[in-house]
């Protein structure tokens, strides 16, 4: 929020009534509430007879007069101004036509974010349009006085009516964004584009869960299978993300979060993206099938289809998309597990279940602050369509995650230490989830979202260090027999 | 590329508001009951070069980036693809420009209405909470459910139907490169 300083010269007429002899306005970007004074340069002052002149030259560096400022905040509109306004109204000689609104000085805040000043003597209405005004100051040289109009209602009202910053075309971050550019494939930038197309950070997280799944499964650690499984999963994930972006171009264009994606900006052609996805998808699933095993390949393929053909279009149809998306997130760790054992054991299902339930606090908190975007782009997200359910489900699955981690020792996935040391992590997650459920504001949702990003790698790490290996599992059962 | 800055010809504008990166700067002056409204935009001139393809800045209404295809020495296969692509582009532009305009209008109406009814209850200076705004977001989605789903299906069809012509163009280019 900035301030607007209006420079008004008031002159006493014969008989004592005030007239406005001039005004000049200048929009000042300032984060402080201290208004900047314009020097009393004649060129900046607009005069009585031809009140339309504005100094086009930049005003010399502003001075801050603290003495004037002190203790004068929240000053009510002084009586003199009201008088002045009325006096001029009666002053028939220079009166305006009836269709000019007879507004008081500094009265009108219309719905276009405007402050309107009406100078009756010069029959002029000045509209100052800006979404950044929260403080208006008038400097009256005649009295050597500065009057502040701090209008809390103004600031608050304007907040609600601010220019919609969620619309990408309204947010121009750099001059680069108003250029026309030649559409040509730049080969040296291609690797970077491919990484962006495959949403490399998301793919990285997916591969991390697969690795954790592999490491958690009972059986010998085979580096070559581990590597093939990771690479195969990564390629499948790249393919899924590329296809997703191919389908979403006009939707991605509507939101600031996604407006810089490769296809939206036209760095790559849609055909190129589909080609890349096909190559990645076929290679990925083949690697999983030939280098790992068929079950893992099937899971990878099914997940690819689930993400691109079910989850992506479903965002326009039903809030159930979050649950489908959670299944998509739950499959990668299971793939890591099946790469070793070749079957979906209870351990694999538990890992999948933990990842499944983690998705809800993660995604619901993320989507909470994107409600205006989702609505405008036509996404039927839970946070928009059913906000209460969104908060409830996020909290509910925080508790489910906690519960699932406690059951890990029961199916011999981990030792009891995991149940103990994962508890603080999960309880804090649940606490943040509860805060989000109770307060439902942007702050609590952001906190929850950020914590979920730390939570899942930490949880997987704790799981790894307290893994129950096959061998020790049997010997531990024997020891009590010996003792008894 | 040359940046075109349309400056208001009338220098006697009353209040001048500048902001470093503002895209649209609007000044208004009402003098003797006549409204002058001038708007100037920071924008780059669409290229006149017809031998290369260009992609533009996001459209202010639809947020979509327009593409201008080359038109000099274009083989017929490519020309057909360009025409198809332009049709889809226009269809998308129309839909989103309309849709976003509608969204903004409905949102403003909602805000105004809610503020009005709130001020009756709470007195002056009511404000809208994010929770109250979310009522509108839901309402908008529900009202436009059919529109959104129909658009989605149409878009998928059109998007996929562009793939084969694009492939033809790519093969065609490759073959001409081999020959030439």
Instruction: Output the structural class of chain B.
Output: alpha+beta
Specify the oligomeric state: heterodimer
Total number of β-strand segments of chain A? Answer: 8
Give the terminus-to-terminus CA distance of chain A.
75 Å
Strand order within the widest beta sheet of chain B: 1-3-2
GO biological process, one term (chain B): intrinsic apoptotic signaling pathway
Subcellular location (chain B): Mitochondrion inner membrane
Family (chain B): Belongs to the COA8 family.
InterPro entries (chain B): COA8 (IPR018796)
Structure, explained:
The complex is a heterodimer of chains A (484) and B (180). Chain A is an alpha+beta fold and 484 residues long. In chain A, 55% of the residues lie in helices and 11% in strands. Chain A has helices at residues 66-69, 79-90, 152-161, 190-197, 200-216, 223-252, 262-265, 270-292, 294-314, 321-341, 346-368, 371-377, 382-385, 387-407, 416-439, 442-465, 470-483; strands at residues 2-12, 18-28, 108-110, 114-119, 124-129, 133-140, 145-150, 181-182. In chain A, the strands form two sheets. Chain A has a four-stranded mixed β-sheet. A three-stranded antiparallel β-sheet of chain A has the order 3-4-5, with no helix packed on it. The radius of gyration of chain A is 33 Å and the shape is globular. Chain B folds into two domains: 1-45, no CATH class; 49-179. Chain B has helices spanning 76-122, 130-143, 145-161, 163-179, and strands spanning 3-5, 24-31, 34-44, 54-55, 67-68. In chain B, strand 2 (24-31) and strand 3 (34-44) form a beta hairpin. Chain B starts with a strand and ends with a helix. The model of chain B is unreliable at 1-40 (pLDDT under 50). Chains A and B meet through strand 2, strand 5, helix 3, strand 8 and helix 6 of A and strand 2, strand 3, strand 4, strand 5 and helix 1 of B. Strand 5 (124-129) of chain A pairs antiparallel with strand 2 (24-31) of chain B, so a sheet runs across the interface.
